[in-house]
Design a protein that fits this description.
The chain is an alpha+beta fold. Helices cover about 30% and strands about 35% of the residues. A 10-stranded antiparallel sheet has the order 4-3-2-1-5-6-7-8-9-10.
C-alpha cells in the first residue's frame, strides 16, 4: 500500500492530476497519505535540489524544504522538473519528438524500471469511468531505445510488440531472433529482462571497442 500511495502522489506531479483527486480514492486516512516525501528533483537547468518534497501545491508546483543554502523553502514549477526521486522511486522525463504514438511532441514524466540504451518505464495515467463515476490509475509499460520514439509494450498484440522490440535490439541478432521467435524468456512479459540483457551486451561491446 505504501508503494501505491507513493506512486499516486508522484503521478500527480507530472500528469496534472490534483491532490484532491488522489485523496478522493478512499485512502485519505492512510498513514502514508501525506504531502511531504524525501527525495530530490533535477531541473531543466541541470540543478539538483535535495530535501523534503512538499507536494501540497500540485499540479503547478513542487516545494523543496531546505531548498537553498539558507534552508528556505523553494518553489519549482512541475514543468521545470526533468528527473525526480520520490522516496524509492525514480522518475524521468520521456520525450517523443518524432510524431510517435504519444503525440507530437510528447514530454512526460515516467517511472524508471530499466535505464540504458534500451529503457523501460511505467507510465501512469488516470482513467475515468463515467458510468460508475470512478477514477482509477492505469499503468502501462513503455519502451524506448536511445534516439528513437517510445512505444507501449503493454496492451500491444504480441505481433506488434515483437516487431518493435526486435527492431530496438536488432544490432544483437541473437536477442532479436529470440524475441521474434517468442522463445521462453523473450516474450512481452519479459520486456524488463530483454532490455537488461541487451543493455549489458551493449555496454560490453562498447568496452571491447575501447580496448581494441
Amino acid at each position: 500500500m505504501k508503494n501505491l500511495i507513493t506512486k499516486l502522489f508522484a503521478v500527480a506531479i507530472f500528469v496534472g492530476a490534483s491532490v484532491v483527486s488522489v485523496l478522493g480514492q478512499g485512502i485519505a486516512n492512510h498513514p502514508f497519505d501525506r504531502d511531504v516525501f524525501e527525495g530530490y528533483i533535477i531541473t531543466s537547468t541541470s540543478d539538483t535540489i535535495s530535501g523534503a518534497l512538499d507536494l501540497s501545491q500540485l499540479p503547478e508546483y513542487v516545494v523543496v524544504w531546505n531548498g537553498d543554502a539558507q534552508g528556505n523553502r523553494v518553489k519549482y514549477r512541475s514543468a521545470e522538473i526533468v528527473r525526480a526521486k520520490i522516496e524509492n522511486k525514480i522518475f524521468t522525463r520521456v520525450y517523443d519528438k518524432n510524431n510517435g504514438e504519444f503525440g507530437s511532441p510528447m514530454s512526460k514524466m515516467m517511472e524508471v524500471v530499466v535505464e540504458g540504451p534500451v529503457s523501460v518505464y511505467k507510465n501512469y495515467q488516470m482513467d475515468y469511468d463515467p458510468t460508475r463515476n470512478l477514477q482509477s490509475w492505469v499503468v502501462t509499460t513503455v519502451v524506448q531505445k536511445e534516439g528513437e520514439p517510445p512505444f507501449t509494450a503493454q496492451g500491444e498484440l504480441f505481433t506488434a510488440f515483437k516487431k518493435k522490440m526486435s527492431e530496438s535490439v536488432k544490432d544483437n541478432q541473437n536477442i532479436a531472433q529470440k524475441v521474434m521467435a517468442k522463445e521462453e524468456g523473450y516474450k512481452k512479459k519479459d520486456v524488463d529482462l530483454i532490455a537488461k540483457e541487451y543493455n549489458e551486451w551493449h555496454t560490453n561491446q562498447a568496452k571491447a571497442e575501447l580496448t581494441y
